[in-house]
Design brief:
Blueprint: E1 7-8, E2 16-17, E3 24-25, E4 33-34, E5 41-42, E6 50-51, E7 58-59, E8 67-68, E9 75-76, E10 84-85, E11 92-93, E12 101-102, E13 109-110, E14 118-119, E15 126-127, E16 135-136, H1 161-193
Antiparallel strand pairs: 1-2, 3-4, 5-6, 7-8, 9-10, 11-12, 13-14, 15-16
Length: about 190
């Protein structure tokens, strides 16, 4: 025993080295372990080298692929599922079974394998899938187009001919109501004067 190195050696077990700086332990059955406050590494025979850091936060084992977690990028990758990238700016998610998805407050796009690209926006309001043709819904134009029916155009300014006749009839009715109101006013005024 020594106060400097602290080694113990016997016939049945391998010599051990204990230190406040490195903290290593080596035996026959398990590989040497290295523990540090800076790197925090642990390595054994059964599991692959692991590196855990406050900056990178990587974890790697035999059964699963290396994972990288970061406050800036937030990436996760494993063997069974493809690379995923989650960010506050882009917000993308991609796996093997489904196509990459992109969600944004500006564009709001979603795309998968089974359904075609969809674009939903507060300005344009477009939706497109494989089974139905492109649809455009807007507060200004209000158009809807599908395969089975032709595109419709609804506009407050350009209204069709029958709607113009309806507006004319409404105008005539309003004039009749005004005339009735004038006649009743004249009758009341004559009654008051008499």
């Amino acid at each position: 025993m020594s106060s400097k190195k602290g080694r113990i050696a016997t016939k049945k077990r391998v010599p051990q080295e204990m230190s406040s700086e490195k903290g290593r332990i080596a035996t026959k059955r398990r590989a040497p372990q290295e523990m540090s406050s800076e790197k925090g590494r642990i390595a054994t025979k059964k599991r692959v080298f692991q590196e855990i850091s406050s900056e990178k936060g990587k974890i790697a084992t035999k059964r699963r692929a290396p994972q990288e977690m970061s406050s800036e990028k937030g990436k996760i990758a494993t063997k069974k599922r493809a690379f995923q990238e989650i960010s506050s700016e882009k917000g993308r998610i991609a796996t093997k079974r489904r196509a990459p998805q992109e969600m944004s407050s500006e564009k709001g796009k979603i795309a998968t394998k089974k359904r075609a690209f969809q674009e939903i926006s507060s300005e344009k309001g477009r939706i497109a899938t494989k089974k139905r043709v492109f649809q455009e819904i807007s507060s200004e134009k209000g158009r809807i187009a599908t395969k089975r029916r032709a595109p419709q155009e609804i506009n407050k300014v350009k209204r069709s001919v029958p709607q113009v006749w309806v507006t004319k009839k409404l105008k005539i009715k309003s004039l009749e109501n005004n005339l009735k109101n004038i006649s009743t006013y004249q009758q009341l005024s004559t009654i008051k004067s008499g």
